[in-house]
Amino acid sequence: MGQKESMSPPPFDSDPFDCLKRNFTEEELKKCFRHFDSTNQGSWSHDDFQRFLKELFSNKRQPYFLLTELVEQYFQETDFNQDNRIDFDEFQQAWKETLKTTLKPVSALVIVDVQNDFISGTLALHSCPANHQGEEVVPVINRVLRNVRFDVVAYTYDWHPHNHISFYENRYLREIDPESKVSADEAKLLDSLIFVGPPRVEQVLWPAHCVQDTRGAALHKDLILVDNAIHVFKGANPNVDSYSAFWDNMKLAKTTLDEQLKERNVTDVYVVGLATDICVSATAMHSLEHNYRTVLIEDACRGVDAKEIEVKRLELNRHGCIFVDSNVVPGMVDGIDRRPELTRNIFKENLNNIRLKKNIPNER
Ligand SMILES: [Zn+2]
Predict the structure, then answer these.
(1) Residue 159 CA to chain centroid, in angstroms?
(2) Where is the EF-hand domain positioned along the sequence (predicted)?
(3) Catalytic pick from 32, 48, 234, 305?
């Protein structure tokens, strides 16, 4: 071990954020700040800042690619007094929460609708256009549950009454809006009808499925059930369907999921289950809306329609959701594999909060 720090520090042998992972005191933050202060001036240059970002957004010491414009943007946003240096206060206020979440995320696994009807029952995915096998998600999810240290696990259930609006069999129960493209007589499975309501809704017609307290609504028998999990039941209102585990399709009513995740200080939501292009993507989209860093584990999802899966993928991606394979999830949850694209939204959010507190106008 050298006695003196050299002017240009060598690459770190170990993760320079290790101490922060254990302990988020001001002292540890200062230590981290000094680590990247190559000229011991008490503030960072652009190069120091870039080195910090490269070490932060890395996986097992391998930095992720960062666009120069993004580095520059982060620098400008962090440099509140615009003196072209980042001092400790600026670093601390802009990065405290963001750093914490990047290094020590609180992660929830949300397991969407792994129910018999979607696997072997009335709405089995193997009969849908994409021809997926729903049961293939079960061993993948079980492996994730065994190998990953999630702080919270939630199971969601599609949970319909007999007279539910989404059932093809119930298409004559409600008045159809004249603007509906097809009539109840003409409608085929997977067509959409517009019902007069209230509320007026456009609804895809699915075969009757996941009726409350039936075998079809039960979770697959091989899916591991963990203790102290959250259980969310959705779609119980006969007149409004609910794809997302956060809100119904009309956003009239919220489930308890968000509240329960917030109670447990969750920062990151990993979504898996059935079906990718319907309930999984709707849940992921609302998770982003609620400001969770959101990850979709692709090999732990199966869907209805291949084209629609791609559409939803692009849309989610645009909003900041990332798509990963289950084998990288342990590193992400442990704060070792730190993805830059997950931090973008939360960084923006933190800066806005700082600006609000300090009354600094947001020119952007
Ligand atoms: Zn349903």
Answers:
(1) 23
(2) 24-59, 66-101
(3) 234
